[in-house]
């Protein structure tokens, strides 16, 4: 793309912008495009297919220039990655308001979006790409960790120690599974047809070891399970053969899931086609290949249902394998649930979800000090402590040092205020930015993921993310964004983001107290409205006002 060059965010306590709100937005935009962070920085693509941080390099330059000149009572408007106006507002207002990829309902299709994108009128903002708060692979790792921690709790356990998980798909996102399980102290066997994927994950320390021999793999994980030892073992094989074989052998597996690329049948290798012939066969006869892939997925899912029948915890991990297997003839494909209704929704009822922060100093020590502060603020939360400790040991920072953990309603503001005090006291060497991603309780309408199977059938109602964005704007966030199509694609989701800066001032403390209470509060509100008893309890216990909730 014209104008491409390597970008790295400035570090340290000196700013060139006139407020920390504007400086932070500029640094986080630049950080999203840091070659350590972005997948294809030259094309301004941060992650997730074509999720961009800015529409063009000219737009990027104009955003940076405008943020440096922006007065502390002005607001910059960004329309799908292009700066389009500066308006006089006030100090409490966001410094930046962003709208990405939004289209009117009947026009919200990929072909129409691509047409408009080619005309230079829009860009795909994904979730944290166009809202300038992506922090690299730590995000997916933590979400996966949190899911497995929830699975452990659902089994009445503190951790996964002594359990064996079976899964498949060790790719870009699925490769976080083995580390997420071992961080929860469990043993896991992960199947992938592509040996290079397993080798890559071993090199990156996301997977402990792999083998091509199933008997050997099973022996290793069973030993780990019986000793209560954390261990991840990869095995080269086709899940549509390996899962039924393990079921037939009666291997004592406690948890079963899958993250092969089942959402795209051409990216799932059917049995009977050699790995080396995959690409050629898929290109030669896409329809025939699709039918074979779906038939294999049916065998794969039937084995998962078989594990369910013998007492395992089984769930779909957001890759549409149930729907594809059903098309392939699996009659009981929907016998097991998706991961959000099964494990994440109870957390959403407490407003619990992603809470991430980055150190504008660039100094890892600042993050370690905030890790310590979180540990002290929430002394009872064993899974949180385990995550923070293991993340420090295993997660390498990409770009500005950052951290993510999950906190709920009436928790996040405590962390934000603590960080702000630490900045004020000089314990941290520069301000901290605090935001979240959009796998979130109150800011997402996404019927295939975050709002799948809502209790009242409100899966596709998209008023909620809009209310979330308006409320964050009114509460003092530093930048607020409204997106369409993140995660699951154009036409399938509407979601909102917020980021707020802890610069150590009194004003920042007031803004943080409001934003970090109200933002997760909308998650509790949304689930109260949908009729979830746990959300009602949380609203009553923690003092959330919901006018039509009977007292
Ligand atoms: P990817 O394409 O990078 O990896 C998929 C892996 O599956 C590859 O390594 C491939 O070799 C392997 N595979 C394909 N067919 C197989 C078979 N028959 N047996 C064994 N292995 C097989 O994809 P990814 O980015 O890791 O994403 C995986 C899936 O997870 C996608 O469908 C994606 O949409 C979904 N996903 C869900 C969430 C979530 O929120 N739960 C998040 C991200 C991705």
Automatic annotation (TrEMBL):
<dbReference type="InterPro" id="IPR035400">
    <property type="entry name" value="Urocanase_N"/>
</dbReference>
<feature type="binding site">
    <location>
        <begin position="48"/>
        <end position="49"/>
    </location>
    <ligand>
        <name>NAD(+)</name>
    </ligand>
</feature>
<dbReference type="GO" id="GO:0016153">
    <property type="term" value="F:urocanate hydratase activity"/>
</dbReference>
<feature type="binding site">
    <location>
        <position position="317"/>
    </location>
    <ligand>
        <name>NAD(+)</name>
    </ligand>
</feature>
<feature type="active site">
    <location>
        <position position="405"/>
    </location>
</feature>
<dbReference type="Pfam" id="PF17391">
    <property type="entry name" value="Urocanase_N"/>
</dbReference>
<dbReference type="GO" id="GO:0019556">
    <property type="term" value="P:L-histidine catabolic process to glutamate and formamide"/>
</dbReference>
<feature type="domain" description="Urocanase C-terminal">
    <location>
        <begin position="346"/>
        <end position="540"/>
    </location>
</feature>
<feature type="binding site">
    <location>
        <begin position="259"/>
        <end position="263"/>
    </location>
    <ligand>
        <name>NAD(+)</name>
    </ligand>
</feature>
<feature type="binding site">
    <location>
        <position position="197"/>
    </location>
    <ligand>
        <name>NAD(+)</name>
    </ligand>
</feature>
<feature type="binding site">
    <location>
        <begin position="238"/>
        <end position="239"/>
    </location>
    <ligand>
        <name>NAD(+)</name>
    </ligand>
</feature>
<comment type="similarity">
    <text>Belongs to the urocanase family.</text>
</comment>
<dbReference type="InterPro" id="IPR023636">
    <property type="entry name" value="Urocanase_CS"/>
</dbReference>
<keyword id="KW-0456">Lyase</keyword>
<keyword id="KW-0520">NAD</keyword>
<comment type="function">
    <text>Catalyzes the conversion of urocanate to 4-imidazolone-5-propionate.</text>
</comment>
<dbReference type="InterPro" id="IPR023637">
    <property type="entry name" value="Urocanase-like"/>
</dbReference>
<protein>
    <recommendedName>
        <fullName>Urocanate hydratase</fullName>
        <ecNumber>4.2.1.49</ecNumber>
    </recommendedName>
</protein>
<dbReference type="InterPro" id="IPR035401">
    <property type="entry name" value="Urocanase_C"/>
</dbReference>
<feature type="domain" description="Urocanase Rossmann-like">
    <location>
        <begin position="136"/>
        <end position="343"/>
    </location>
</feature>
<dbReference type="GO" id="GO:0005737">
    <property type="term" value="C:cytoplasm"/>
</dbReference>
<keyword id="KW-0369">Histidine metabolism</keyword>
<keyword id="KW-0963">Cytoplasm</keyword>
<dbReference type="InterPro" id="IPR035085">
    <property type="entry name" value="Urocanase_Rossmann-like"/>
</dbReference>
<feature type="binding site">
    <location>
        <begin position="268"/>
        <end position="269"/>
    </location>
    <ligand>
        <name>NAD(+)</name>
    </ligand>
</feature>
<dbReference type="Pfam" id="PF01175">
    <property type="entry name" value="Urocanase"/>
</dbReference>
<dbReference type="InterPro" id="IPR038364">
    <property type="entry name" value="Urocanase_central_sf"/>
</dbReference>
<dbReference type="Pfam" id="PF17392">
    <property type="entry name" value="Urocanase_C"/>
</dbReference>
<dbReference type="InterPro" id="IPR036190">
    <property type="entry name" value="Urocanase_sf"/>
</dbReference>
<feature type="binding site">
    <location>
        <position position="487"/>
    </location>
    <ligand>
        <name>NAD(+)</name>
    </ligand>
</feature>
<comment type="pathway">
    <text>Amino-acid degradation; L-histidine degradation into L-glutamate; N-formimidoyl-L-glutamate from L-histidine: step 2/3.</text>
</comment>
<feature type="domain" description="Urocanase N-terminal">
    <location>
        <begin position="8"/>
        <end position="133"/>
    </location>
</feature>
<feature type="binding site">
    <location>
        <position position="126"/>
    </location>
    <ligand>
        <name>NAD(+)</name>
    </ligand>
</feature>
<dbReference type="GO" id="GO:0019557">
    <property type="term" value="P:L-histidine catabolic process to glutamate and formate"/>
</dbReference>
<feature type="binding site">
    <location>
        <begin position="172"/>
        <end position="174"/>
    </location>
    <ligand>
        <name>NAD(+)</name>
    </ligand>
</feature>
<feature type="binding site">
    <location>
        <position position="192"/>
    </location>
    <ligand>
        <name>NAD(+)</name>
    </ligand>
</feature>
<dbReference type="InterPro" id="IPR055351">
    <property type="entry name" value="Urocanase"/>
</dbReference>
């Amino acid at each position: 793309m014209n104008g491409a060059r390597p970008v790295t965010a400035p570090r340290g306590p000196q700013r060139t912008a006139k407020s920390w709100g504007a400086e932070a937005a500029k640094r986080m935009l630049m950080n999203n495009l840091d070659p350590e962070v972005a997948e294809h920085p030259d094309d301004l693509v941060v992650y997730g297919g074509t999720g961009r941080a800015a529409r063009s390099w000219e737009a990027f330059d104009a955003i940076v220039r405008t943020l440096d000149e922006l007065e502390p009572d002005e607001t910059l408007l960004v329309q799908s990655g292009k700066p389009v106006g500066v308006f006089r507002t006030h100090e409490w207002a966001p410094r930046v308001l962003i709208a990405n990829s939004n289209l009117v309902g009947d026009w919200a299709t990929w072909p129409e979006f691509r047409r408009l994108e080619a005309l230079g009128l829009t860009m795909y903002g994904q979730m944290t790409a166009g809202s300038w708060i992506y922090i690299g692979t730590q995000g997916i790792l933590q979400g996966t960790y949190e899911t497995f921690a929830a699975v452990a709790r659902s089994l009445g356990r503190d951790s996964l120690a002594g359990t064996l998980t079976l899964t498949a798909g060790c790719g870009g996102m699925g490769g976080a599974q083995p580390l997420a399980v071992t961080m929860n102290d469990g043993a896991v066997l992960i199947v992938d047809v592509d040996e290079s994927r397993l080798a890559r994950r071993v090199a990156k320390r996301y997977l402990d070891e792999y083998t091509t021999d199933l008997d050997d793999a099973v022996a290793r994980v069973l030993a780990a399970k019986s000793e209560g030892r954390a261990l991840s073992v990869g095995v080269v094989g086709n899940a549509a053969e390996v899962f039924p074989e393990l079921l037939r052998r009666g291997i004592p597996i406690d948890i079963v899931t899958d993250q092969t690329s089942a959402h795209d049948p051409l990216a799932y290798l059917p049995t009977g086609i050699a790995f080396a012939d995959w690409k050629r066969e898929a290109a030669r006869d896409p329809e025939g290949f699709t039918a074979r892939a779906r038939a294999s997925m049916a065998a794969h899912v039937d084995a998962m249902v078989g594990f369910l029948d013998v007492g395992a915890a089984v769930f779909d991990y957001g890759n549409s394998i149930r729907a594809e297997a059903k098309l392939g003839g699996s009659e009981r494909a929907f016998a097991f649930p998706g991961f959000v209704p099964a494990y994440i929704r109870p957390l959403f009822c407490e407003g619990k979800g992603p809470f991430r922060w980055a150190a504008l100093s660039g100094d890892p020590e600042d993050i370690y000090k905030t890790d310590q502060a979180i540990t002290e603020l929430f002394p009872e939360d064993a899974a949180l402590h385990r995550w923070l400790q293991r993340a420090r040991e295993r997660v390498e920072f990409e770009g500005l040092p950052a951290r993510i953990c999950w906190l709920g309603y009436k928790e996040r503001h405590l962390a934000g205020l603590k960080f702000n005090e630490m900045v004020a006291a000089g314990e941290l060497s520069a301000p901290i930015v605090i935001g979240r991603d959009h796998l979130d309780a109150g800011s997402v309408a996404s019927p295939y993921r975050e709002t799948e199977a809502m209790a009242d059938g409100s899966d596709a109602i998209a008023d909620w993310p809009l209310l979330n964005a308006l409320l964050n704007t009114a509460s003092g966030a530093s930048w607020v964004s409204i997106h369409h199509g993140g995660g699951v694609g154009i036409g399938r989701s509407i979601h909102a983001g917020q980021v707020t800066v802890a610069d150590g001032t009194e004003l920042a403390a007031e803004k943080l107290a409001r934003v970090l209470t109200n933002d997760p509060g909308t998650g509790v509100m949304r689930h109260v409205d949908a009729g979830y008893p746990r959300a009602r309890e949380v609203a009553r216990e923690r003092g959330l006002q919901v006018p039509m909730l009977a007292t």
